[in-house]
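Researcher: Next sequence.
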Amino acid sequence: MLQYQTIPVTPFQQNCSLVWDDQTRQAAIIDPGGDLDVLLGAVKQLGLQLEQIWITHGHVDHAAGTADLAEQLQLPIIGPHPGDQFWIEGLTQAAAMYGFPPARAFKPTRWLDDGDTVTLGSHTLQVRHCPGHTPGHVVFYSPEIQRAFVGDVLFAGSIGRTDFPQGNHEDLINSITQRLWPMGNDTVFIPGHGPESTFGRERQSNPYVRGT
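Model: Next structure:
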């Protein structure tokens, strides 16, 4: 069975998630935006073998720790979609602008596209390309445990911002309605910030996408 633990990091309280196989303890880390000492402490405490880094999108609070972590542990970087390359290339500047510790750009070991999959031990998660917040944003979905790691596409009661470079509100709404809703109302999503919710709850109560 897949397990996960979400750990807020950086001054932006970005939800970094550890995902692992509870039998083999093989693990991936989603969006290591910073506070690597905290994240690695959790990895050790849980007895995990960290094997991969998965990135939903290239914003600094989600990706700033990626290059250092990959180098330190010799880990492959999986994702995001190539549309976010310009965000990744701008990580050093973004870190300075927002008062983050120094950050470096990186080159993903593997870019992702809609319909791809990622594998952790015997478990497979689906990849959906969900542009709008950023052009290259991806989501990781596990039908097995009915969980979706959606980054900044959707939040409990809100949606991702689209006023950043190459953001697009129409694309974001289409991503939510065409890529997320088909995962099912009972699917729990882990957003990039704030508490978990379900797609069904957001379809009923989220003012930005209610009734879609």
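Model: Residues 169-180 form the longest helix (12 residues). The domain at 2-205 is CATH 3.60.15.10 (Metallo-beta-lactamase; Chain A).
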